Amino acid sequence: MNILDWIQDWFKSQCDGDWEKDEVIQITTLATPGWEVEIDISNTSLANLEIKWILNEINRQDWYGVKVENAKFLAAGDAGKLTFLLDLFKQMIDGIENS
């Protein structure tokens, strides 16, 4: 299953008539250039998870960062990292659900 199908299925499985009324998944661009992904996890078993900002920077064109705080998954990366950032979220969800 590709990552967009997975995100779509995950989103549908979280919908409860209320949660989805907010901006629960946001994908925006950065001026660096790059991507930013923000996903509300308040409706999940990860709601209390906190991860401080982790930055992996090879150079200005090859980088990403991720954190989890205030029931939000937040990730950013260079212009080639959108699929990677979404896959980081999937790995986090899969890791919790399979533990």
Structure write-up:
With 99 residues, the protein is of the alpha+beta class. The protein has one domain (25-97). Helix content is 28%, strand content 37%. The protein has a five-stranded antiparallel beta sheet with strand order 1-2-5-4-3, covered by helices on one side. A hairpin with a 3-residue loop joins β1 and β2. It is globular and about 40 Å long.
Strand content: 35-45%
Distance between the termini: 21 Å
Give the overall shape.
globular
The total beta strand count reads 5
- How many domain modules? 1
Unreliable stretches covering 5 or more consecutive residues: none
Q: How helical, in percent, are the residues?
A: 25-40%
What profile does the largest beta sheet have? 5 strands, antiparallel
Please list the strands of the largest sheet in the order they lie side by side. 1-2-5-4-3
**What is the N-to-C order of secondary-structure elements (H for helix, E for strand)?**
HEEEEEH
Multimer state: single chain
User: How confident overall, as mean pLDDT?
Assistant: 92
Class based on secondary structure composition and strand pairing: alpha+beta
Backbone CA Rg: 13 Å
How many DSSP helices? 2
